[in-house]
Amino acid sequence: MSGSLGRTPESLKASGRSSEKLSLPILQGKIKRDPDGYETELQLIYKQFKASVDLFQQQAALSFSSVGSDPSVAKDLGDRAMFLAHVTPFYPKQLAEFPSQLADLLRTSCLAMPSGLRNHVAQALILLMNRKSLVIEDLLALFLDVQCIGDRNLRKLAFSHIVQTIRKMSVTDPRHKGLQKIVISMLEQEDETKAKRALVTLCELLKKKVWLGDRHERVAIAICEACFHASPRIMVSSLRFLLDYENIEDEDDSDASDNDDDEDSKPENHVVINREAVYKANNKGTSSSKKKKQAKLQRAMKSIKKKQRASSESTTSTYSPLNHLNDPQKFAEKLLSRLQTGKSIGKTSERIETRLMMMKVIARTIGLHKLQLLSFYTYLQNYAKPHEKDVTQILAAAVQACHDGVPSDAVKPLFMQIVNQFVHDRSRPEAIAVGLNVIREMCLRIPELMTEELLQDLALYKKEHEKAISAGARSLIALFREINPSLLVKKDRGRPGGPVAKPKQFGEVNVFSDVPNVELLQESDHESDSDEDDDDVELPGSDDVDQEELVPDDCGNEDEAEEDSDDDMNNTEDDSDVDTSIAGDEEEDMNDKDDDDDDGEASDSSAEDSGSKEKANGKKRKMVDFDANLLSADTSLRALKRFAEAKSEQPSLDENDGILSNEDFRKIKDLQAKKEAKLALARKGFTVPDSDQLSKKRVNPAKLEAHIRHKLTKEQRMELVKAGREDRVKYQSRTATKQKKVGGSSNKQKEHKKNMPLAAIRSKAGRSKRSKKIKKSNSGTQFRGRKAWK
Q1: Contact, 688 vs 289, CB < 8 A?
Q2: Nearest of 264, 261, 200 to residue 226 by alpha carbon
Q3: Of 11-15, 163-167, 297-301, where does the model show the most confidence?
Q4: In a 10 Å sphere around its CB, with 0-12 CB exposed, 13-18 middle and 19+ buried, how is residue 482 labelled?
Q5: Cβ atoms 617, 492 nearer than 8 A
Q6: CA 373 – CA 411 distance, rounded (Å)
Q7: Which range is most confident: 561-575, 599-613, 715-729?
Q8: Contact at 8 Å (CB) between 55 and 105?
Q9: Where are the domains of the chain?
Q10: Which is nearest to 234 in space by CA: 244, 243, 245, 223?
Q11: Which of 499, 637, 722, 737 sits most deeply, having the most CB atoms within 10 A of its CB?
Q12: What is the 3-state secondary structure (H, E, C) of 625-663?
């Protein structure tokens, strides 16, 4: 055998062979140092590998049990495979066919191999791919097939290698499309195990944000289409991933925020509170007024932080694989038809958990894409009952499916069923609280559902003793204070502030014609320009006395009228600022502004008086060079008119270039934060979110159960009991504690030794005499149990 393989004593001695065995690790190190000198040893081991592979395949074909029982055969084959994988880069011509032979061995004889040999061959293939002797396209389908075998270690190894390799690839690598095609084609197969592994791979890569975004939208579409797979397990896995994807993103964001809390939280904090408000809350007024101002300041800061947190969440966690659907209407209709098919109307053969997941996915799709699927609301009426299992999640799906594009007539039966089933006097407090919260969320999206009589009836629950019910009713009142106060009773409308809000009509949409909140930037620029003009700008000809004298009286009246109109505009702006100031500081702000206005009026009146005096004293004008003076007067009049027009008009972005820089957007953000701070300090309540924000945000079923006290289980009660016993001393009797006590007597013992007052002694003696007398009288008549015959 040795002669046929070409062994020579010199080669064996050089290769490090001691007696009969060849030391592969030593030979491997020597080959790496001198590849040309050990080519004969490489050919020897390569021939041994081929011979052992042929022997293994023959024994596996004949189903000999000696292969599995004899571990030396598998061990030698695995060692030679790993050795050749290590030295393949040094002999690319001699071992050109080795990678394909090793892959064919794993593909054809994987089931016949023992677990250790499978792992050795898989590690050898991974090593070859890392050394660029194999490409990932050749290994991807093989490793996906290998994961279907029941070997846990091999499945874990192959799966982690696929994910890590694709993660290390460049984003613009053109190989992504070919790999996606391989995995998606395996997902579309009817074999459940292969489709399951392909789905797990796609979900993991989407979760790791590798195949994420518009560039890889076919991955998200394939996961969504897996909801219609023939296998129920694949369908449930796809539905669960679509529902839990946003929770996974929230957990990742929370972990990242915990890690980078100290570094990133400070620059991203945009809470802006006026310094004057802080100063007044801490230094001005009595102690009680200071407390009120400080409490209002804290409430304002909390509301601002809550809004900023909600806006940041809406920007980060609004992504869902459902966003990439090419035809979301068809997807929702197809899933609803699968949900509705069954023996009875409204019920399917699927489990209730599966039906609930399908309802949630349909509702999420309707909310994200603002679809019109009117039969879905009729289907939900079968489950919108207080005794149904997981009814809160069903109601959350109903809320998620409501948006401003749905006609109120289609949702009205479901809405009235929730009102009649949950909110009545004989219902449980938990059901009433959930019903009020659901009604509030549905009316937030479709205000036309509510009528005046129904709202006034529901508002009466604000006087209930249960906190959950009263909080739900008050939140409903607060909502309609913002969107339609005319439906409320007069005492529930609150303070009459600004203009009365009117609900949007069906199909009414706010269309932005410019960058949102760009008017704040324009106002700030206008204010700064007006300040500079007032301080620095001088009108042409203002120093020339003759030109001033030659201005006609009509022009002066026009200028005064324009100045009066400007003053009126400034006064209106001051009034608007007063409306958005702190309620507790309104009087002080008004006093300050009144003082400013008085000063302004005084200055205006003084100017007018001086002007009138000059007119009264009116000296004769000297006409020297009349034509030149008339020309200069004409130019000054035009300059005055130009200045008035420039001051009255707001600066528009179109006049310049219409392009905003990053500094402009940053300034708009700061101005918006200041405006929100003023509004939060001025009044309570909340701002109604936009319909796009409501549709993107996922409805949390836990928020529909706010302030509800759930009944604790026995395990939770035992945990509370054990937690209360931690700091307590071990139980002992009183006599034992008294005996262990060191020191004098206690105050209670000393009280017993004190001499009682004389009146107390006499009353105690009288009581003892009376008790003895009663006892003695009762002892004679009491039956002692004597028998009748004695």
Answers
A1: no
A2: 200
A3: 163-167
A4: middle
A5: no
A6: 11
A7: 715-729
A8: no
A9: 24-250, 280-315, 374-499+686-704
A10: 223
A11: 637
A12: CHHHHHHHHHHHHHHHHHHHHHHHCCCCHHHHCCCCCHH
Domain 24-250 CATH class label: mainly alpha
Q: Which of 73, 167, 158, 162 is nearest to 122 (CA)?
A: 158
Say if residue 680's pLDDT is above 90.
no
CB atoms within 10 A of CB 692: 13
CA–CA gap between residue 537 and residue 510 (Å, rounded): 40
Tell the burial category of 615 from Cβ atoms under 10 Å away from its Cβ (0-12, 13-18, 19+): exposed
The owner of tokens 């270039």 is 657
Count of other CB atoms within 10 angstroms of residue 550: 20
Q: What confidence score (pLDDT) does residue 697 get?
A: 84
Residues of the chain with pLDDT > 90, as a percent, come to 25
User: Given 3-state DSSP classes, what are the helix, strand and coil percentages for the chain, each rounded to the nearest 5?
Assistant: 70, 0, 30
Lowest mean pLDDT among 86-95, 227-236, 257-266, 753-762: 257-266
Region 711-716 average pLDDT: 87
Q: Cα(166)–Cα(205) distance, rounded to whole angstroms?
A: 8
Return the sign of the alpha-carbon dihedral for residues 673, 675, 679, 685: negative
Where residue 685 falls (left for φ over 0; alpha for ψ -120 to 50; beta otherwise) is: left
Phi, psi of 753 (to 5 degrees): -85, -10
Q: 588-592, long-range: CB within 8 Å, 24+ apart, which pairs?
A: 588/280, 588/284
Average pLDDT over residues 176-195: 91
Q: What tens digit of pLDDT does each residue of 272-283 get?
A: 566 777 777 888
Smallest CA-to-CA distance from 187 within 127, 250, 238 is with 238
What is the per-residue pLDDT for 381?
A: 93
pTM summary value: 0.66
- H or E element, residue 433: helix 429-445
Structure confidence by residue, pLDDT tens digits, 502-553: 777 787 777 777 777 777 777 777 666 555 544 443 433 434 433 333 333 4
Per-residue b/e over 121-131, b at no fewer than 16 CB within 10 Å? bbbbbbbbbee
Q: How far apart are CA 584 and CA 675, in angstroms?
A: 18
**To the nearest whole number, what is the mean pLDDT of the chain?**
75
Tell me the C-alpha distance between 220 and 210, whole Å: 12
Q: Provide the pLDDT confidence category of residue 268 given band limits of 50, 70 and 90.
A: very low
- What is the spatial distance between Cα 663 and Cα 669, in angstroms, rounded to a whole number? 10
Residue 334 phi, psi (nearest 5): -65, -40
pLDDT at res. 444: 92
Paired tokens of 662: 């990053």
Residue 578: both structure tokens together: 């007063």
pLDDT in tens, 130-171: 888 888 888 888 998 888 888 889 899 999 999 999 998 888
Q: CA-to-CA distance for 482 and 503, rounded, in angstroms?
A: 9
CA–CA separation, 223 vs 140, rounded Å? 19
C-alpha of 163 from chain center: 26
How high is the pLDDT of residue 549?
Answer: 36
- In this structure, are residues 238 and 226 in contact, taking their beta carbons and an 8 Å threshold? yes
Residues whose CB falls within 8 Å of the CB of residue 592, separated by 6 or more in sequence, listed in order: none
506 three-state secondary structure:
coil
Rounded to the nearest 10 degrees, how much is the dihedral formed by the CA atoms of 215, 219, 224, 225? 120
Q: Name the residue with higher pLDDT: 111 or 393.
A: 393
DSSP secondary structure, 371-432, as one string:
---HHHHHHHTTT-STTSTTHHHHHHHHHHT--TTS-HHHHHHHHHHHHHHHSSTTS-HHHH
E strands, 103-236, in order: none
| Angstrom distance (rounded) from CA 632 to CA 635 | 5
Is the pLDDT at 209 greater than 80? The verdict is: yes
Cβ–Cβ under 8 Å, residues 701 and 434? no
